[in-house]
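Please, structure for the following, as tokens.
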Amino acid sequence: MKRRSILKSSTGILAAAAAPRWGQAQEASFGPDDLKGKLTPFGAVRAGNADGSIPAWTGGYSTVSEHYQNGAIRPDPFADEKPLLLITNANYAQYKDRLTAGTVALFQKYPDFRVEVFQTHRTAVAPQYVYDYIYKNATSAQLSADGNSIVGAYGGIPFPIPKNGHEIIWNHLLSWAGTTAHFTGQAYNVTSGGSRVLEASTNSWFQFPYYFENGESRFNGFYLQEFIVPVAPPYEAGGSILVLNPLNPQVTPVEGWVYLQGERRVRRAPELQYDTPQSLAGGVTNWDEVNVFSGKLDLYDFVYKGIKEIYVPYNTNKYTAATLDEQYHPQFLNPSIIRWELHRMRIVEAMVKAGARNVDARRTIYCDEDTGAAIMGDVYDASGAIWKMQHMMPLIMPDVPCVHVAQNFFTYDLHVGDYSGGDVYNGEALPQWKLVPELKDSFFTPGQLAASAGGF
């Protein structure tokens, strides 16, 4: 695929038996008061599974190392653990029911691909005020008739006891990751020939006004404000990107702008959504594939298929401490530094609506029961063939506190053989999700894009 810069053109555990499943019927038996009993504050089943390979949730992980400094690499609390299971090309068929279709496709395409499965730790956590908002949302949040927007929600996932696919996707979009952060993100594309290409290195500021404590009365309608300043490579440097994501796109549209260094002016960029290739991820990932799914819901029908135990990357702090050479290998990421665990996933099938258009004709989205966030995704082309495998790298951030799933996304193009990573952390670039004070709304404006050309 031809690469193009959006800044140059604004148009541009060990059991092989079938995993237990829970359908919507069981979830419908729960009520809001169960969020303080049978369910976790996020709406996950508090108990573990029958064989103990998934433990009970006991409060998550929020222990901050006394040596940790804000924005530094967050330690791996499970660094001394060894894999319980090694899944390889020779035995993956035994575990197929606990693997996504995309993971199976990687085994089928690459003989040396492997998955190292570790003990499961349910580390999801948030401050008490977030739990309080989630409890309130359980009775106040309402989905629009078309599922494309919500009202009556604030400060937590809106639907802790979801009834349909749209509610699960909104939980993903509004999953907890803190309020305001600054980070250095990098994007690399690894070609089918094994070459690693830097697509973008950025300074970024992300803010979630939806999550300000006691901020409901001044909520500006945008659940996420993104200010992205590419600093490398040269053809990306000098510009900047602003994206504002509304809670109700029917009332407030998605807003996007770019500052074009060559023109020295700010332009609207309505194409920063849907299936426009994202230049900051090498064009392998589209804008609505960022973090498995992002943006507006209006092109798809989302059908909830139930809950299933799946092997997914989780608690992957070891990965973010690694060097680039340790992270990126030809064909696929280095399996030795990716921790996989068994977790319960809510599975949503997304089908393009009749009369709508998106190059991703069908998508399977796997949302973590504990955090609400999407962790893996399968993308199918118009012919019905699996096209892309996607996954996140959930990180333990006890200082926030959260399991952070909003960065470090990877996409494998199974047709071409390329793969890419976006907003990726590594041990050679800091800060990593540095917590900063609340930024004024004036920071997230088109005028600030031009000002950023002179640096901060």
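The first helix runs from residue 24 to 28. Residues 1-22 have pLDDT under 50 and may be disordered.
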